[in-house]
């Protein structure tokens, strides 16, 4: 279940490249490159977790993806959005990113246990 969102997001990063580039702050150079790299990192990380092949490494990849995205995309938008409703939406995305980072960090320590 945890990995599904990353598989879907990785596909979206490739299929909706322009949309994801537009979400990034203009100050970040080579935005299309970083969107594609982040999609690959998500896909590889989710695959390693789901297949239970190096799940801890996969979780670290997810953490490496989530921390900068949560801060640069949702954190910045949460603070700078002119509309109070959009600030609340970005706050929920920001908190979701923090929670998912926590879950990924848990996997980095415990791995994946199938029962």
Helix content class: over 70%
How many domains would you count in the coordinates? 1
- What profile does the largest beta sheet have? none
As a percent range, the share of strand residues is under 5%
Distance between the termini: 15 Å
Q: C-alpha Rg, in Å?
A: 15 Å
- The count of helical stretches stands at 5
Q: Can you tell me the overall shape?
A: globular
Q: What structural class do the secondary elements suggest?
A: mainly alpha
Q: Which regions are unreliable across 5 or more consecutive residues at pLDDT < 50?
A: none
Write up what this structure looks like:
By secondary structure, this protein is an all-alpha fold. It has one domain (4-110). 80% of the residues lie in helices and 0% in strands. The protein is built from five helices and no strands. The chain has helices at residues 4-15, 17-23, 31-50, 55-80, 84-110. α1 runs antiparallel to α3. It is globular, with a radius of gyration of 15 Å. The protein starts with a helix and ends in a 5-residue tail after the last helix.
How would you summarize this macromolecular structure in one to three sentences?
With 115 residues, this protein is mostly helical.
Question: Descriptors for this entry?
Answer:
115 residues; mainly alpha
SSE topology:
Blueprint: H1 4-15, H2 17-23, H3 31-50, H4 55-80, H5 84-110
Helix pairs in contact: 1-3, 2-3, 3-4, 4-5
